[in-house]
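Working notes for the structural subgroup meeting. M.R. asked for a predicted model of this chain before we commit to crystallization trials. I am recording the input and output together here so anyone reviewing the notebook later can reproduce the run.

Input as submitted:
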Amino acid sequence: MRRPRRSLSSTSLIRSFNVVSVLQTLYREGACSKARIAEITRMSPATVTRIVSELVRQGVVAEHEIAESTGGRKPVIFRLSYDRLYIIGIQLIRDRVTLAVCDLKGKVLDKRTFNPYSLQPSDVVSEIAREFELLITLNEIDRKHVLGIGLAISGIVNSESGVLLRSVNLGWQDVRIRELLERALGFRVVVENDANAAALAEFWFGCAGDVSSFMYLKTDTGVGAGIVCGRALMTGARGMAGEIGHVPLVKDGYECVCGQHGCLETYLYGQRLLRRYESRTGTHLDGVRDFFAYAAAGDRAALSMVSEAAGAIGTAVAMAATLLDLDLVVIGGLWGELGASLVQPVQAKAIEILDRSGLDRAFAVRSSALGEDSDVLGAAGTVINRWFTPPI
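Returned structure, recorded in token form:
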């Protein structure tokens, strides 16, 4: 007895190998005909026609133009409807969770943020599930058009197994967070460290889509790095690549909480920065942005400390550029908000060190323009990174 053919509108089939191949081809090519899709995917014209027709019916694919005929009927060129395929990005840090629905271009269509009442993993997942349902319902999103869910989380992550190995900020260890979320949400979930996710945000949606290898320096509650080499994310065998915060850079630098001197985190971590400023000036500041405002206003102590930080970052950047053959470093988070006033001295310091080493190469430092959405966009980027080839 023949099985009834299932509709392509089912959630499982829109993620089937053939449909994914069509979507990937249209994403990579930008726009193309059914004949070209069949040629690239090596599927039969009948199969391609059936898939494309169903995707057009759903609004996921649209007719783009009529091409010139090469002898016969003029071929129709199709393209993806980038605003009809969705990814849900989730950012989970110590005291805040953000969920955002994004399109394939990295546009945040809507987001919801909450402070979890408990940091027990099961409680956090339950709250995420409630907010997820609200996000889907309020935005009238067809679940069939959700490609997947990405989670950017602070801590050391085994992205292949979906296990959070350790997070100091959350107080979690060996939490099977992907499994918990997939069970609660009913979708496949990709889990990545927040710095790695932010690097993917820059790669797919930000200022690093035009380079082969770069490092994203994350400067928020701590200091971490996400590294892309050869247009592929480098996570390391134990998920610990990019743990740059406690690498000692300056022999006689400030003492770090880890017991070493001259660590990068000592120069950038907010609370230690504010305490050091207060010890120098006797002035108490409530936050790092107040410190930045003092520096912008010409306060000598604040400017001196920004200069020290730029020197430390420049040293770290030069070391990373040499070891990893980087084209670019992107500074994100709080320190990235300083823009050119930080980027210029960092790049000058890094180039000075690189020149002394005799390495003749192009190298740039930029600040991120993604702002507070970098992590949640990175969570979306983890899904796109699994589905598609590098940026169009």
